[in-house]
Amino acid sequence: MKKIIILLLAMMPLVIVANDTTQYVTDSNVEKLVDKYSAKMEAAVISIADSLKQPVEFVWKVIIKQQIVIGIIWLLFLFTVIILIILSLKLIPKENEYEEVNPALIFSLIILGLLLILSIIGTMTIGIPCILNPEYYAIQEIINFIK
Fold first, then answer.
1. How many Å from the N-terminal Cα to the C-terminal Cα in the chain?
2. How many separate domains does the chain show?
3. Is residue 139 part of a domain?
4. Could you tell me which residue, 42 or 113, shows the higher pLDDT?
5. In angstroms, how far is CA 83 from the centroid of its own chain?
6. Domain that holds residue 36
7. Is 73 in the same domain as 38?
8. According to the model, what pLDDT value does residue 1 have?
9. Would you tell me how many other CB atoms lie within 10 Å of the CB of residue 71?
């Protein structure tokens, strides 16, 4: 008889816990706590989002303008390299003159040629698309910032 009473007393806390009317999706205590406070957290996030609406609109406009400026910088870089190449080519003596060409001039033309290739690629892949579609590149910048 003592064994039955001890067994019933041992099972009594289990019966009391089993009568809890709250329904949880999971069994973990941490997850129960998250379920309990998720509505409060949702309300807090919504209030924060409402308070940040105005600054986010301002930042969005600034990021779009920044993308247009990036495109213009690439175009200016391309035009600067083209002008430098034209000026450097004017320094080369004409064919009927028998002067020796300065090796530094040849080296600078090679470097300017490489910069021209780089600026053409950059302008075509980054510069012009940033000017034509700044919203896309603004979204890409935000995604990269979040990562």
1. 66
2. 2
3. yes
4. 113
5. 34
6. 19-51
7. no
8. 47
9. 21
E strands of the chain, at which residues? none
Tokens at residue 13, please?
């806390």
Please check whether residues 47 and 59 belong to one and the same domain. no
pLDDT 10s digits, 83-104? 998 988 887 766 656 667 778 8
Q: Quick check: 39 pLDDT over 60?
A: yes
- The predicted pLDDT at position 17 comes to 47
Q: Which two tokens stand for residue 39?
A: 């509505």
**Same domain, yes or no, for 58 and 47?**
no
Residue 85 resides in a domain:
yes
pLDDT in the model for residue 99? 66
3-state secondary structure of 94: coil
3 domain residue, yes or no = no
Q: What is the arithmetic mean of pLDDT over 59-79?
A: 93
Q: Are residues 35 and 79 in the same domain?
A: no
Please give the backbone phi and psi of residue 21, each rounded to the nearest 5 degrees, phi first: -85, -10
Sign of CA dihedral 89, 95, 97, 102: positive
Residue 1 lies in a domain: no
The reply to whether 109 and 135 lie within a common domain is yes
Report how far residue 72's alpha carbon sits from residue 8's, in angstroms, rounded to the nearest whole number: 82
What is the CB-side half-sphere exposure of residue 100 using CA atoms within 13 A?
3
